[in-house]
Design brief:
709 residues; Rossmann fold; Dimethylsulfoxide Reductase, domain 2; Barwin-like endoglucanases; seven-stranded mixed sheet; six-stranded mixed beta barrel; binds iron/sulfur cluster; iron; metal-binding; nitrate assimilation; oxidoreductase; metal ion binding
């Protein structure tokens, strides 16, 4: 590929779901520099520490440069033939459900689309799931229950226009930093804007909060169900909206009315005074946005939490209006793109439903596929259990590192080691998952490949290449298409460019879409190479040419009070909070896992930047001073955190920001970066029964001093 050294290339940050625009440039000496794209509507020129350091994470270090079979370097033809023939043989001998793809929110939409098409339409199984299952599956399930579709109604502008922002389980300052910066800037212009943080920890986000509700772990269902009851008791409902646009309110209110303020206080660990002040503020502020992310989603009651929040917005008619609505923000750069193409085991492409026979028929006809998966496949945790018990005999992992990031990581590693056939396509040769692969396929990295991603506010942006790949890496879409052709599905996988795939994806979104589905980018069907090259960021739905920019966007979801259910009405979900005690005398603390500001997932990219490691150089555990005193732990001591599944060694950070009875540790370090650092060796494969999302923020644990500092 020819690189124009003088030109800045417009691309998108590969880290979080904010989806910031990046201008990347390669100097004549090969040095890469990046800056925020001032014209991108997600960030208007801002970048956070991770985005700013992107140039430092590019390099040959640790790259997988050539295909390998059993550690032997080989050519692409042999490797692809081997993958295709082994998958075909496994399917012939054991059926389509004996194979699985575990994919990633790091994939570009075009990669994701082809992987989903291959598995669901041509293999005939729905055993494709994604690490986004760990990120936002509960929000997807909550949206589908309430709206009849997985529709995120919020936009970033809504945050700037709101008079009240309620942040639930969301440390935006560290996890979505540019969104936090946008809120902070809006707040400076409008000091009357109020911000409430609902989080067991006093995170950096609390710096801009007017009120911090240090809620008990998993107290969110009680908090918002209690709010619904309080709104009913205080005549603060929008009865006209409820009657015109919703069903199920009576049952939801009846279930909520079991909660009085005293019982909510007990369940949430908050005082009645705190609850009363928050509830009054919510009731009095029409322009309220409730933002939530992993603290809500990563829970065994994650879907109920989402619906408890949505119930309050429906009850007050605060949805589909500027500056008002529930807003789930995604963690990964292309979690939303994965939702669009059916990258989850219980979805079909173009936001269609695998359990809907009409949708299956429509997708099958569009693809001209020999068959189509008839039922949902295995979700992430179940998939690795399927690998462990032998149901899955051939597994392809794309662009993710489940050996370090799945709950109960030791069991996942053992399952992968025992699996008869494991393919990993990845940028790096050195991840803990790649090490166990029978076939390693080198994938092109950020900056070397072309495609699209969709951010948290449904904005589709281009990622563009500006670097030549070293060695033989290929884009993921190319690898998938080549395997599909070798499995005998050549005609349906004849794509030569990502533009062709995007054009097909867009055409499917508009195919027989009579407005009964939310996702529609039909205006881009069959987009040509030039149009794709020039594609500017746009939000969906965009069914007609010209739809797309923030100013011109014709549609605000749910503005007309119509939802995607059969009767076009939103559903209240009746929820009764349950209390679950996971701690035991041996494991008396609740371990909450999460992110820090300057690292990403298992550090396979950010770990390359010394600058990013300067912020926090080693794994740590936040402990409340009283818990530290009780366990005889001093600041900076080395501490062993143990759960029934394993243990890690980390540095003690004693802080009143941490809630007593809980500890917090970041998920990023693995054994590669710290001695005994793999935190997900402690977490359990406990999932939300509706969404299948693991409860990564509520793990029974204990701490003890390991050695003096
Ligand atoms: Fe990248 Fe997210 Fe930072 Fe934006 S906020 S620069 S998308 S990591």
């Amino acid at each position: 590929m020819e690189i124009d050294a003088a030109r800045e290339v417009r691309t998108t940050c590969p880290y979080c779901g904010v989806g910031c625009g990046v201008l990347a440039k390669v100097a004549a000496d090969g040095q890469v520099s990046v800056r925020g794209d001032p014209d991108h509507p997600a960030n208007f020129g801002r970048l956070c520490s991770k985005g700013s350091a992107l140039a430092e994470t590019i390099g040959l270090d640790g790259r997988l440069l050539h295909p390998e079979i059993h550690g032997r370097r080989t050519g692409w033809n042999e490797a692809l033939d081997h993958v295709a023939s082994t998958f075909s043989q496994t399917i012939a001998e054991h059926g389509p459900d004996a194979v699985a793809f575990y994919v990633s929110g790091q994939l570009l939409t075009e990669d994701y689309y082809l992987a989903n098409k291959l598995m669901k339409g041509f293999v005939g199984s729905a055993n494709i799931d994604t690490n986004s299952r760990l990120c936002m599956a509960s929000s997807v399930a909550g949206h589908r229950r309430a709206f009849g579709s997985d529709t995120v109604p919020g936009t970033y502008e809504d945050l700037e226009r709101a008079d009240l922002i309620v942040l639930v389980g969301s440390n935006l300052a560290w996890c979505h930093p540019v969104l936090y910066q946008r809120i902070a800037a809006a707040r400076e212009k409008r000091p009357e804007m109020k911000i409430v943080l609902v989080d067991p920890r006093r995170t950096m986000t609390s710096d801009i909060a007017d009120m911090h509700l240090a809620i008990a772990p998993d107290g969110d269902v009680a908090l918002f169900t209690g709010l619904l009851a309080w709104l009913g008791q205080h005549n603060a409902l929008d009865r006209a909206y409820i009657t015109a646009h919703t069903t199920g309110f009576g049952q939801a209110l009846f279930a909520a009315s079991a909660l009085d303020l005293t019982s909510v206080a007990t369940a949430t660990g908050l005082s009645e005074d705190e609850l009363g002040r928050f509830y009054s503020l919510f009731a009095a502020t029409a322009k309220t946005v409730t933002v939530y992310s992993q603290g809500v989603n990563q829970s065994s009651s994650g879907t109920d939490k989402v619906n408890a929040i949505i119930n309050c917005h429906l009850a007050t008619g605060r949805i589909g209006k500027p500056g008002a609505g529930p807003f789930s923000v995604t963690g990964q750069p292309n979690a939303m793109g994965g939702r669009e193409v059916g990258g989850m085991a219980n979805m079909l492409a173009a936001h269609m439903e695998i359990e809907n026979p009409e949708h299956r028929d429509r997708v099958q006809r569009f693809w001209n596929a020999p068959g189509i998966a008839q039922k949902p496949g295995l979700k992430a945790v179940e998939m690795f259990q399927g690998v462990a018990d032998g149901r899955i005999k051939a597994l392809w992992v794309m662009a993710t590192n489940p050996v370090d990031s799945m709950p109960d990581a030791d069991a996942v590693e053992a399952a992968i080691k025992a699996c008869p056939f494991v393919v990993v396509s990845d940028v790096l040769a050195s991840t803990d998952t790649v090490r166990h692969a029978h076939v390693r396929l080198p994938a092109a990295a950020w900056g070397e490949k072309d495609g699209t991603v969709t951010n948290s506010e449904r904005r589709i942006s281009r990622q563009r290449s500006f670097l030549s790949a070293p060695g033989e890496p290929r884009p993921d879409w190319w690898i998938i298409a080549e395997v599909a052709r070798r499995m005998g599905f050549g005609e349906a996988f004849a794509h030569e460019t990502p533009a062709e795939i995007f054009g097909e994806h867009a055409a499917l979104s508009g195919f027989e879409n009579d407005g009964g589905r939310d996702f529609d980018i039909g205006a881009y069907a069959g987009i040509d190479a030039e149009g794709y090259a020039r594609l500017a960021p746009f939000q969906w739905p965009a069914p007609s040419p010209g739809g797309g920019t923030t100013e011109q966007h014709p549609t605000r979801f749910f503005a007309n009070g119509h939802f995607y259910t059969a009767d076009r009405k939103a559903r209240f979900i009746a929820i009764r909070p349950t209390t679950e005690t996971r701690t035991t005398p041996d494991f008396p603390l609740i371990l909450n896992t999460g992110r820090i500001r300057d690292h990403w997932h298992t550090m396979t990219r950010t770990g390359k930047s010394p600058r990013l490691s300067q912020h926090i150089a080693e794994p740590f555990v936040e402990i409340h001073p009283l818990d530290a005193q009780h366990h005889g732990i001093g600041d900076a001591d080395i501490v062993r955190i143990s759960s029934p599944r394993g243990d890690v060694l980390v540095r003690a950070l004693i802080t009143p920001r941490q809630r007593q009875g809980s500890v917090f540790a970041p998920m990023h370090w693995t054994d590669q970066f710290a001695a005994k650092g793999r935190l997900d060796a402690l977490t359990a494969p406990l999932i939300d029964p509706v969404s299948g999302q693991p409860a990564l923020k509520h793990v029974a644990a204990r701490i003890e001093k390991f050695a003096a500092k």
